[in-house]
Amino acid sequence: MNFELFVSRRLISEKDFKSSISAPIIKIATAAISVGVIMMLIAFGTGLGLQEKIRDKIAAFNGHIQIESFSSRSQQVNQNSIPKNQEFYPAFSEVENVEHIQAVATKYGIIRTETDFEGILVKGVGEDYRWDYFEEYLVKGKLPDVKKENSTEILLSQSVVNKLALQLNDQVVVYFLAEDASSRPRLIAFTLVGIYNSGFKEFDDQFLIADLQQIQRINKWDADQIGNFEVFVSDFDDLEITTREVYQYIDSFLNASSIIEQYPTIFEWLKMFDMNIALIIGIMILVAGINMITALLVLILERTQMIGILKALGASDWSIRKVFLYNASYIILRGLFWGNLIGLGILFAQKYLKLIPLNPQTYYVTEAPISIQLYYIIGVNLGTLILCLLMLILPSVIISKITPIKAMQFE
């Protein structure tokens, strides 16, 4: 059997480190490791969860990449049309990261009721529209059926519905400005069949989801004319690279832009969470490491006579250092166990019970979102174990300064 591991096990089992000197120090070190792991897991879980949730919400309304005519960005009211018949549609197989592509169109309008009115952006969608996100945000009613001819069913946000005092199945009259200022506005009477609430007020107050055919009809477009394409990717981390690849495969009169380019302020704000996570990790590992160094030094000083006896019997300094590093590993692993148990328990409780609410006006979400990923759980545990042990190697050099003669002197 490994000599160092054997001695370390005997020390660990000896009254479970319950000596009068080292017991409280060891408990503090274990607690420091546990608290550090809890804080790091929560930082990763909430930070990544918030980033993913906000990205998903922006993508729900815009896709990850938008393909449109160059002139559409400069249009304030009317969107220029582009041909729906493209080589990359309906399957953008030329770019590997592209997961889905859909044809849409938007047009500004005004919802008018007997007592109030509200400006709105009507987004027309077709049979290829990806409803995954809105199924999650749906709070009342159903999703619009856009498969039938000139469907008048619409989806409207809870915030707009509350402002205008609307109910499910109410008739919603939307006025559209004509391109010719001298012409009278055109109107369409829609039927409210679904109410959604994404928690992203900036978009909830803006979007009304309707049938693409209605936008084509109001703009006097052909069935082959649309406003833009929305592209979804499978790996968001490669979005900027994918956007460039998409741009290379589309016609010269079309432009491709990612949601990072369209909403730079939001994504710059999200990057700050990476800095916060890194700062928390650094502080927690430093605190845990200092506590472990203290615990190791106390263990060494408490076992000075044992070190002297081992040296007298021929044990090398490195061999004795390994004994105490094994002891420190036991303390770290015990701290990791409790840290993971409590930390993951908190994350799962928030993920499924939604105990901690957030202000949607500040964070764009109604509760703290959680992302539980195996890679950061493993990284936190391995990183804490390795870095703490590396920090302990240097303090363990004190063992080489202990001489057998002085160490074995009994008072």
UniProtKB/TrEMBL annotation:
Residues 279-404 form the ABC3 transporter permease C-terminal domain. Residues 29-242 form the MacB-like periplasmic core domain. It is found in: Cell membrane. It comes from the Bacteria. It is a multi-pass membrane protein. Its main location: membrane. Pfam families: FtsX, MacB_PCD. The chain crosses the membrane at residues 21-44, 277-301, 331-353, 373-399. InterPro entries: ABC3_permease_C, Lipoprotein-release_system, MacB_PCD. Keywords: Cell membrane, Membrane, Transmembrane, Transmembrane helix. Belongs to the ABC-4 integral membrane protein family. LolC/E subfamily. This is Permease. It comes from Psychroflexus planctonicus. The lineage of its organism: Bacteria, Pseudomonadati, Bacteroidota, Flavobacteriia, Flavobacteriales.
